[in-house]
Structure formats: structure tokens, C-alpha cells
Specification:
There is one protein chain. With about 525 residues, the protein is mostly helical. The chain has one domain: Amino acid/polyamine transporter I, CATH 1.20.1740. Helices cover about 70% and strands about 0% of the residues. It is built from 17 helices and two strands. It has a two-stranded parallel sheet. It is globular.
Length: about 525
């Protein structure tokens, strides 16, 4: 549930700030899958599922995750088809620019940047809420959630200012730990039969307390949110061994494994409380549901291990998000799309001004709206809105792959062979969106779909105006926006002079980074 951090893919820096090429052919299928999953944070996904999905889908939360998995697998197939033909580090921007041109790449970049920017209030608000409940329950100490949110953003921004990058090795260790902990949890609950034995009622849409459209389909938006980042293997295209085979397979395997993890762990959680109305109510109203079940079916050690897994996963995701958006602001300041002050580097060759700006904006929004509306509620709004923006990008990919194949294959193009999966993907996404507009959900969720449409329309107008003024600038801007998810621009590049333009390649072959003081944690 995070932007992919391309520094983790192997880009290196030399002492004078120049960039070495990516280490080609060094990543095989298991490594690509592990890296993608590490940048999703599966333990955060299931915890979010408990907090947001259960109140909408109840015992049918398992069905919601199953529907979300099917949709994401179909989208993964579309992305895999692109990756077979365009194994580059450019990901979504490259794919859609090749399908429709730079203007579509720009619009998609705006959607991705907006989605990743919304991860800040989600991460900070939910982290503060979660740790507040943890400390209050386990230690009887009532510390305001705002303290934990502020501590998290200070920690992440400090690392960014010091030029410290998130280490993929640390992420892989964290991934292994959280998967083992939640797998043990699921095995214990399922092996003991939960509260009332195994049940297929978890697949019954009638078990959603708010109904099929108003409950289950809205819940599916949050299940898709849990998968965000599943496509990050596409950024490894220039380092993977046999990339045209490895990357498509990695995207599919990652999505399938994540889906299995989410479905099994959610099943264990639901039957752990029971599928009855009382059990579902207990699940919805328990702020630390996994801890309750861990102590009931395991012991206090398992409960503590779950806490450690979730907290460390949140911290890692926030570090990566801060780094990604900081670099994007830095690059836009460097190219004079935002105030040039954002491109200033400190003595450690780190984008200090951009990092502090990111931190202030993120914590400001979280404190303002989280305090007014409750941190968990505000986090759910941010996650919902961010997912709609991601869905916009996924729709563009599903349409784009058909056009791309038509252009690539010419007369050999077959609607049955080459268009069925994208069409089915669009149908699945359409079903979920239908449930979010008919009937309209309560405010403010009902405002986010028209807001997403408005963002798309404004971006289209901006893309056309930019192209008329400076065709190269719309390409560069699209890549910079998309860099929120793919590390396209890193400090260390010399700021472009005012009015200067640079011609980006459609797939970057190098990943500029920071200077000699840049370190890993």
C-alpha cells in the first residue's frame, strides 16, 4: 500500500553525484515477487480490512476480499501484457504514453500523484489511531493519537533530510516477519474452528449488514486499496533476468499470493468472532480485533508479535511514501513547475526543503481533519478517495492495452484473444463503481467520485494547454507526476535553468539518486 521505491531496485550513486546504470539481469522471479510484496505491506492491508471493510461487509468481508482479488488479478494480467512488450522502469507512464501519447501519460501521472499524496493522511491518521489504542489497551496509558502521528512524520522526514534511504533488505525482513506472524494467527484460528466452526456464510453477499451495493461493493473499494503497490515489479524491468518473462510473472504471482493472504487471514478473523450477528458486531466494534483473537486462540506473545508487525510495517510504508513524494516535489522545483526553493539540497545532498514541506502538509491535513472528524474516519475517507484515483489509472490501462495491441499486431489482432481480459477487468471495476453511485453513499464518500472525474477533466485541459505551450514540458510533467510511484527523479541532478526543457526517454535507463552521503537503513 505504498509507492514503489525505485532506489530499492538497485540504482547506485558514485561520489561525484553521477549515476551508474541499473544492475541488469540481477533479479529473478522470487526476488521480484518479494520486493513487490514488501512494498505493499500486507499486514497493513488486513488491519485496514478489519477497520473499514467489516463495518460495510460484515461476515461477507471474505467475499469482498475475494472480489477485490479477482479484479486485481485481471488488472495484473493487463499490466503483465504491457510488461511483456515494454519491460522498462517507467511503468504506468510508459505504458499509457505508448498507447495514447504524452497527454494521457500526463493525466495518469496526475491521478497517481494524487493517490499517493492521499496516502499521507491515511498513514498518519490510522497509525496514530492504531498505536493510541494499542498503548491504551496494553499499558493503560491514554496518549493522544496526534502524538504518535507527529512522531511518525518527524521520524520519516528526519531520515529524508539526513539523506537516509529505506533499505529493501530491511523491508524483506519485515515482510517475512509479518507474513509468518499472520499466517500462524490464521492457522491457529482455523485449526481450532473459530467461534462456531467453519462456515461458507462468509461467501454469502446477504451477510453484508449494509446490503450488496451500499455495503459489499463499497467494501470492495477498500479491498482494492489493500493491493496498492502490487504492480511495483514493473519498475524492475531493467534489472530483472529475462524481464519479458520475469516481470509479467512477478506481477501475477504477487497479486495471487497477496489475494490468498488477504482472503485466508480475513476468513480466520471473521470465523474467530463468528458469523452470527453478535459475532460480527463484536468484530466491528473491537478496535484491536486481531489482538483479541490472538490472545483467545494463541497467547499474549502472538498478540505482541502482531502489534510489532503492524507498527513496523506502517513505519516502513511511511518512510517510503515520504521519500517518493519528496523526490517528486524536488524534481518539480528543479524544473520550475513549483517554487525553485523545493529543489534546494542540504550539505548531505538531500532535498531538505521538499522533505519538510511534505511533512508539514501531511501532518497538517491529518491533524486538522483527523481531530475534527476522528482519525479512523478521516483515514477511511483518504483511503477511499485514493483508491478511486488508482481505479482511474487502472481503467486507462485496461483501455490502453487494447489500443496498444491493435497498433502492435495490426491485422493479427483478435478481439477474443486480446480484448476479453481488459473488457472483463473493466466490467469488474464498473460493477464496483456502480455500487458506489447507486445508491449514493453517505457524505463525504458521495463527493469523491465527482471529485475524481473533475480531477481527470482538469488534467485533460491542463495537458492540452501545456502541449500547446511546450510539448516537451507535458512529457516531463507527466513523468514527474508519475514519479510519486516510480522513482524517476532523484536529488543530485543539476537544476534546470528557467525555461529549459529536457527530452525524457519513454523508459529511463538510469535512476538518478542522491550524493555521497546517502545511506540505507
Amino acid at each position: 500500500m505504498t509507492p514503489s521505491d525505485a532506489d530499492a531496485t538497485g540504482a547506485t550513486r558514485v561520489g561525484d553525484g553521477s549515476t551508474k546504470g541499473l544492475a541488469r539481469g540481477t533479479i529473478k522471479l522470487p526476488g521480484a515477487v518479494a520486493q513487490s510484496a514488501a512494498l505493499v505491506g500486507p499486514s497493513v492491508g488486513v488491519v485496514v480490512g478489519n477497520a473499514f471493510i467489516a463495518s460495510l461487509a460484515g461476515a461477507a468481508s471474505v467475499l469482498a476480499f475475494l472480489i477485490g482479488t479477482i479484479i486485481c488479478v485481471l488488472i495484473a494480467k493487463v499490466i503483465s501484457d504491457y510488461a511483456k512488450r515494454l519491460p522498462s522502469a517507467g511503468s504506468f507512464y510508459t505504458y499509457l504514453t505508448q498507447s495514447f501519447g504524452a497527454k494521457t501519460g500526463f493525466v495518469t501521472g496526475v491521478l497517481l500523484f494524487g493517490a499517493y499524496a492521499l496516502l499521507f493522511p491515511f498513514q498518519l491518521s490510522f497509525f496514530g489511531y492504531y498505536v493510541h489504542g494499542l498503548v491504551s489497551t496494553d499499558f493503560g496509558i491514554n496518549i493522544p493519537w496526534q502524538v504518535f502521528a507527529i512522531a511518525l512524520i518527524i521520524f520519516s522526514v528526519t531520515l529524508a533530510v539526513l539523506g537516509v534511504q529505506y533499505s529493501l533488505q530491511a523491508g524483506l525482513i519485515g515482510l517475512a516477519f509479518e507474513v509468518i506472524v499472520f499466517s500462524v494467527f490464521a492457522i491457529l484460528v482455523i485449526a481450532k474452528g473459530g467461534a462456531h466452526g467453519q462456515s461458507l456464510q462468509v461467501l454469502n453477499p446477504a451477510r453484508a449488514p449494509k446490503g450488496f451495493a451500499s455495503g459489499l461493493l463499497i467494501a470492495c473499494v477498500y479491498t482494492i486499496f489493500a493491493f496498492v503497490g502490487f504492480e511495483s515489479a514493473t519498475t524492475l524491468g531493467e534489472e530483472a533476468s529475462e524481464p519479458k518473462k520475469t516481470i509479467p510473472r512477478a506481477v501475477m504471482v504477487t497479486t495471487l499470493l497477496l489475494g490468498a493472504f488477504f482472503v485466508v487471514v480475513t476468513y480466520a478473523e471473521v470465523i474467530g468472532f463468528g458469523v452470527s450477528s453478535d459475532g460480527v458486531n463484536n468484530l466491528i466494534n473491537d478496535p484491536s480485533a486481531f489482538n483479541t483473537l490472538a490472545r483467545r486462540y494463541g497467547n499474549s506473545f502472538l498478540s505482541g508479535a502482531i502489534d510489532v508487525a503492524v507498527v513496523t510495517s506502517f513505519i516502513a510504508l511511511n518512510i517510503v511514501t515520504v521519500n517518493a513524494v519528496t523526490r517528486m516535489l524536488y524534481a518539480m522545483g528543479r524544473d520550475r513547475m513549483l517554487p525553485p526553493a523545493l529543489a534546494r539540497l542540504n550539505r548531505r545532498r538531500a532535498p531538505q526543503t521538499a522533505a519538510i514541506t511534505v511533512g508539514l502538509l501531511g501532518i497538517g491535513a491529518s491533524l486538522l481533519f483527523g481531530t475534527r472528524y476522528h482519525p479512523e474516519v478521516y483515514a477511511s475517507w483518504s483511503a477511499y478517495f485514493a483508491t478511486l484515483l488508482f481505479i482511474g489509472a487502472y481503467i486507462a490501462l485496461c483501455v490502453g492495452i487494447v489500443r496498444f495491441k491493435q497498433r502492435q499486431l495490426g491485422h493479427a489482432f483478435s478481439p477474443i484473444r486480446h480484448a476479453v481480459i481488459p473488457i472483463v477487468s473493466l466490467a469488474g471495476i464498473g460493477l464496483v463503481l456502480y455500487g458506489n453511485v447507486h445508491p449514493l453513499p453517505s457524505a463525504p464518500l458521495r463527493w469523491f467520485i465527482p471529485a475524481t472525474v473533475a480531477i481527470i477533466l482538469v488534467s485533460v485541459v491542463a495537458a492540452y494547454r501545456l502541449e500547446k505551450l511546450d510539448p516537451e514540458r507535458v512529457r516531463r510533467a507527466g513523468r514527474l507526476f508519475a514519479a510519486a510511484g516510480v522513482d524517476e527523479s532523484m536529488p543530485g541532478d543539476e537544476p534546470a535553468p528557467p525555461g529549459a526543457t529536457s527530452r525524457p526517454t519513454e523508459a529511463a535507463s538510469t535512476q538518478p539518486g542522491v550524493g555521497p552521503s546517502h545511506r540505507n537503513v
